[in-house]
User: Fold DEAD/DEAH box helicase from Marinobacter xestospongiae.
Amino acid sequence: MTAPFTLRPYQQEAVDATLRHFRQSDASAVIVLPTGAGKSLVIAELARLARRKILVLTHVKELVEQNHAKYESYGLAGGVFSAGLKRKENHHQVTFASVQSVSANLDQFRDEYSLVIIDECHRVSGDDSSQYQRIIDLLRQQNDALKVLGLTATPYRLAMGWIYRYHYRGFVRGAGDGQDKPFAHCIYELPLSYMINRGYLTRPELVNAAVAQYDFSALARDRFGEYAEKDVNDLLGKHQRVTRAIIEQVTELAADRKGVMIFAATVDHAREITGYLPQQQTALVTGTTERQDRDLLIQSFKQRQLKFLVNVSVLTTGFDAPHVDLIAILRPTQSVSLYQQIVGRGLRLDDGKQDCLVIDYAGNHVNLHHPEVGEPKPDPDSEPVQVFCPGCGFANIFWGKTDGDGRVVEHYGRRCQGLLEPVEEDKPDAQTDHPQQCDYRFRFKECPHCGAENDIAARNCHQCHQAIIDPDDQLRDALKLKNAMVIRCAGVTVSVAGSRLKLTYHGEDGEELGESFDFGKPAQRAVFNRLFGRRFANGQAPKTFNNADEVMEQQAVLPAPDFVVARRHKHYWQVQERIFDYHGPYRKANEAP
Assistant:
């Protein structure tokens, strides 16, 4: 059958990437397309090409309806399984369903499905007991080769970071080893800037909130980085003048605008905001608004009978009102995904629409085009730096610091994020094959049993699986002993006498510990190179030193351990342990107590 739509080039590329991936692998995959890029068309085309049963899941009835409508526009009949739409059809080749309805009726999905497509897949938590995972587990019982494809504009979650592990451009997401992710591969990604520059989306005009801003920085956050509603209400209740001033500015800026969406922090906050807006032009939608009332209010807004739409924690996905050209964000969030979804409500094209004003009154500071996701910023002075891997040459981007000439003087990367293509003769089974992450580590914990390098947080060696001594245990045990000394090392100095190299470790309180390495003895030279040469220049430029004078010439960038542990032997102290790259509860030198 001839398709009623001609896919845009990037939509066809996304379809082709999906077919190519699943012909070679059963591993789960993600497609990243910005809001407004037409994910429903990609889904419809994949469903049209399917020859076996597939299930399309999403979390709101509006998206179920939208995806189903696109598919039926091909002249094909698809089923809908959604309590919100009062339809429970599961006998078609293609079924469009809400995850809640399928999860509540698992006994009706015992057929063999070849593919599950999850729209807005950033909502998949990876929890084994989640609704999505229970559905996938059930379908895998009927077909162990089940394919799982996710589509999203925002491939990250709070407290998880990126929702996939491997990127098709040849790098790994996430710093830790073996991190559990809901999806294995990102197989296609289209930047937001591509859509804007080519006229597929409206340009966002980010405006500074010149009148007033809320300051939520003093509030405590939960483990997901969000604030308790009571704390937010207490703060906002003390700043009603700020809210009034903000809404006065929004109203003034809205004079020449067609549709205004205001995102409030709490229900009480939303009610206060609504009270400052023109009553006949304003609607308030919250999670407790009756479904019938919400549908009527949204319809009135879309038909431009209302100009202002105030909402709390709703209308961030599955909501399409192209005329929206002013977004006011009055709620704090640590979720990059949520922030981008909010802004995305104003980026769709509409007749006469030139841009969309976006004003953030909550100080969220999210970069729409290059969001900071994954590893938290170590300190305010850190910036993204490029660090080349000495092993494979991959250009990693880590948090770090540079000098006045732009050279990297410090970085916080642990392991190279480059992907290495597998050697085909070593792994002939293409169905289970995937690229391997480069095993070069800039920071590492050495296994005392086999010498393998492990992540600094590892408890067991990845190679021999033996337990690795925990640095916290080392420090705690040493601090209990009367004949042991532990110093927080603030630096190291070097001196040379013939072939012998002496290192002096300086504690922050003036203590000193020393040890020597005789470079005339191969065994001692090898120990020094393993401890210090391998970590040279933050692991960016590992060196093998052949004599003590070479070390002396490079002493300015010689790596210093964070802690040095020594034991007393009659009249002198002998260094027992040097702890590098420490991350734990004990304070390091020159850190605030």
